[in-house]
Structures are given as structure tokens and as C-alpha cells.
Write a structure and sequence with these properties.
Blueprint: H1 26-41, E1 46-48, E2 58-61, E3 71-82, E4 85-89, E5 99-103, E6 106-112, E7 118-124, H2 125-138, H3 149-165
Antiparallel strand pairs: 1-2, 2-3, 3-6, 4-5, 6-7
The structure holds ligand K1U and zinc ion.
The site of ligand K1U has 15 residues, from β1, β4 and α2.
């Protein structure tokens, strides 16, 4: 498994729309494993392929306290949404920023699992919020898009300033120094470990 580099706001690659996964094959299963490793290492509860510069419709989650219930959603579709309420959100691509976002309180989602078979799930609470947040990533949307222009501008400035003050000063591009594969390494090309992977 490979820990991948997570793109950070306002990187324009976070704005790409992901394409459907055509076949659930070993390359897709490897990507899911790498996303889970990356999510656990970053102490997140979810991660979308977009965040590691892979523009395919795949996301992973684990909202369990014990961190032992990984879930993988391939080509997720929102079948039903109802209710509306605020929830506190964070994002590994917008580090150390948390704010309230209004989302549907109950959702039903259909997706493919790692076996390529469809499943459906009803979700509310953190699981429901997290699925909606990750599905937004696949559309190139970020939770900060729901905040005011002023807040978004302040967040952008704060993150840019913090990135400049990092020892390397190169932010998400400095993957090798952080021991992670370069963004986009899961698409054709070499990772930081020099392993190339077939296109999805
Ligand atoms: O970057 C991501 O998409 C992952 C993100 C998922 C998420 C968490 C909470 C609400 C919506 C989406 C995170 O894991 S942020 C970090 C985190 O662990 C966390 C933040 C707030 C509440 C619970 C967990
Ligand atoms: Zn996010």
C-alpha cells in the first residue's frame, strides 16, 4: 500500500469532475487500499480519489470510533435525500479549518463495492455528512464553497501563508520530502517509490 499526497485548497486540480470507474479491477482495488492508508495516516474519516489527483469516482470512509470499519464506494449515486441541518465539517484538503455546513440529514446512496457488485445504504449523522462531502469532491466541490466569499478568502489567505511558512515552503508539491507518492502518481507514471501503475 502507498500513502499518497493530498492536494490542498486552492489547488485547481481539486476542481476537476471525476469520471466513472469502468471496471472494478485490481488497479481500482489498489487505489482503494492506497486511499484508505492515506486517510488513516491523515486521521481523516473520509477521502475521495480527487483529493489525491485521481479523477475517478471512488471514495473511502471510516467513521467508526475504533477505525476498523473501512467502506469503499465506487461510482456512488445519490438516490434520495431528505431533511436539512447543519453539521461541523473539516477537510484534509483544507487543513485545520472547520465550519458548519447545511446538508441533507438522511440520504440513500447506491454504489459498487470492491467486488464490483452494487449495494445501497441509508445514512444519517456523520456517515451521511461524510458521504455527501466526499461525493462533492468527485464533482470538484469543496465544503468552503458553502461558506461566504469573505470566509473563503480568509481561509485561502491563511492556508497560503501557512504553506509559505512550512519548512520546505512547497506545500503539497513537496511529496518526496514527506515520504508520500506525488499527486497524480496513481494515474499513469511513477510514484515516489518508482512503482508505476496502470491507468484506471
Ligand atoms: O478531506 C476529507 O474529505 C475528509 C474529511 C471528511 C469529513 C469529516 C467531517 C465532516 C465532513 C467530512 C475529514 O476527515 S476532516 C478531519 C476529521 O477527521 C473530522 C473533522 C470533523 C468531524 C469529524 C472528523
Ligand atoms: Zn474533503
Amino acid at each position: 500500500m502507498t500513502k499518497l499526497a493530498i492536494l490542498e485548497y486552492p489547488d485547481p486540480r481539486l476542481r476537476k469532475t471525476a469520471k466513472p470507474v469502468e471496471t472494478v479491477d485490481d488497479a481500482v482495488r489498489q487505489l482503494a487500499a492506497d486511499l484508505l492508508e492515506t486517510m488513516y495516516a491523515a486521521k481523516g474519516v473520509g477521502l475521495a480519489a480527487t483529493q489525491v489527483d485521481v479523477h475517478r469516482r471512488l471514495l473511502v470512509l471510516d467513521v467508526s470510533e475504533e477505525r476498523n470499519q473501512p467502506r469503499v464506494f465506487i461510482n456512488p449515486e445519490l438516490l434520495h435525500a431528505e431533511g436539512r441541518g447543519p453539521g461541523e465539517e473539516g477537510c484534509l484538503s483544507v487543513p485545520d479549518i472547520y465550519d458548519k455546513v447545511q446538508r441533507a440529514t438522511h440520504i440513500r446512496v447506491r454504489a459498487l463495492g470492491l467486488d464490483g457488485l452494487p449495494f445501497e445504504i441509508d445514512a444519517d449523522g456523520l456517515l451521511g455528512v461524510c458521504i455527501q462531502h466526499e461525493m462533492d469532491h468527485l464533482e470538484g466541490r469543496l465544503f468552503v464553497d458553502y461558506l461566504s466569499d469573505l470566509k473563503r478568502q480568509l481561509i485561502r489567505r491563511r492556508l497560503e501563508k501557512e504553506r509559505k511558512n512550512r519548512p520546505s515552503g512547497r506545500g503539497a508539491l513537496d511529496s518526496a520530502a514527506r515520504g508520500v507518492a506525488a499527486p497524480g502518481a496513481a494515474t499513469p507514471g511513477a510514484t515516489a517509490r518508482g512503482v508505476s501503475r496502470p491507468a484506471l
